[in-house]
Backbone:
């Protein structure tokens, strides 16, 4: 087990626990969610999951994510290979989007690798906000947003319209709009971060 090199008597220590139990990880995630609810004064976070099952009751497809504070993220979309090409993914996506809308969601984030189904999201009205090369190595990952009927993506729209120049971001060159779209996926963006 790797540690930071601190002696046990020095207090808290960092250690690798790549096999952390799902129960403990869920408990830690819940603590983060409690903090988020407290800071934002929004406690409307809920899981959003649709499953397709075969006649034997086995899951053959899933669209899963969550809604919170007027936004949603689709974190898992999968159809068993033997059942692909039958429109199940589109049915799951439609159900996910409809339920999100019923909850008052205005924006839905989704990500997909180029070898998965980015076209599915684009046909459903999602707009590609970022394309990450080398994620994983030799491939691309896309981050897409579906927004409300106004045709604007909130800060995503601002990023897209205002920031077109290129910047050095960590180890490589990214379009600044993509960098900021990535920030939007990871954390809220304050207007002063865009200048």
Residues:
């Amino acid at each position: 087990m790797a540690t930071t090199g601190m002696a046990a008597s020095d207090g808290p220590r960092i250690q690798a626990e790549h096999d952390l139990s799902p129960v403990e990880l869920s408990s830690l995630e819940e603590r983060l969610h409690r903090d988020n609810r407290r800071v934002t004064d929004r406690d409307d976070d809920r899981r959003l999951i649709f499953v397709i099952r075969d006649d034997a009751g086995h899951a053959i497809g899933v669209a899963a994510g969550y809604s919170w504070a007027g936004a949603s993220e689709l974190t898992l979309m999968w159809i068993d290979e033997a059942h692909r090409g039958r429109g199940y993914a589109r049915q799951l996506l439609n159900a996910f989007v409809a339920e999100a809308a019923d909850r008052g969601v205005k924006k839905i984030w989704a990500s997909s690798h180029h070898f998965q189904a980015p076209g599915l999201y684009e046909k459903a009205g999602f707009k590609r906000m970022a394309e990450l090369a080398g994620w994983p190595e030799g491939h691309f990952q896309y981050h897409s947003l579906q927004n409300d009927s106004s045709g604007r993506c909130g800060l995503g729209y601002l990023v897209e319209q205002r920031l077109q120049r290129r910047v050095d971001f960590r180890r490589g060159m990214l379009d600044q709009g993509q960098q900021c779209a990535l920030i939007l996926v990871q954390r809220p963006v304050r207007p002063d971060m865009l200048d």
